[in-house]
Specification:
The chain has one domain: 3-Layer(aba) Sandwich (Rossmann fold). By secondary structure, the protein is an alpha/beta fold. It has a 5-stranded parallel beta sheet with strand order 2-1-3-4-5, with helices on both faces. The two termini are 18 Å apart. It is globular and about 35 Å long. The protein contains 4 helices and 5 strands.
């Protein structure tokens, strides 16, 4: 089951985009919609307005935005978080991220209006 995914600046990577598309997902990068360098709220609003789950490594910022949106009754198509520790042995690669998204989808868990840490799905 493919997913529509918007990447924020932290995940805007050509290899990741190619692998996600190869896996059948619809992917939009901030470069493609002239939002590169925009603030986190702008990225989330764009993703929400267009029905894209947002993929980001800005864990704290988007967890905060998610809580604010819940309190305001606002809807989004899901937030997918990737936590990086700066350790190449532990950090997720682009292939790991694609695999984790596939596992998340296969598990059938709800994605809209939820936050998922992809590191737990590798």
């Amino acid at each position: 089951m493919p997913l529509a995914i918007y990447l924020d600046d932290s995940q805007d990577d050509n290899l990741l985009i190619a692998l996600l598309r190869r896996a059948g997902h619809t992917v939009v990068s901030p470069r493609e919609v002239t939002l590169r360098g925009s603030d986190d709220l702008t990225h989330l609003e764009y993703a929400a307005q267009n029905g894209y789950a947002l993929l980001t490594a800005d864990v704290r910022d988007f967890e905060t935005l998610h809580r604010q949106w819940q309190q305001q009754g606002r809807q989004h198509a899901g937030i997918l978080l990737v936590h990086y520790e700066g350790n190449v042995r532990k950090d997720m690669t682009a292939a790991d991220i694609v695999r984790a998204i596939g596992r998340l989808l296969m598990a059938g868990v709800a994605i809209p209006n939820q936050v998922h840490r992809l590191n737990q799905w590798r």
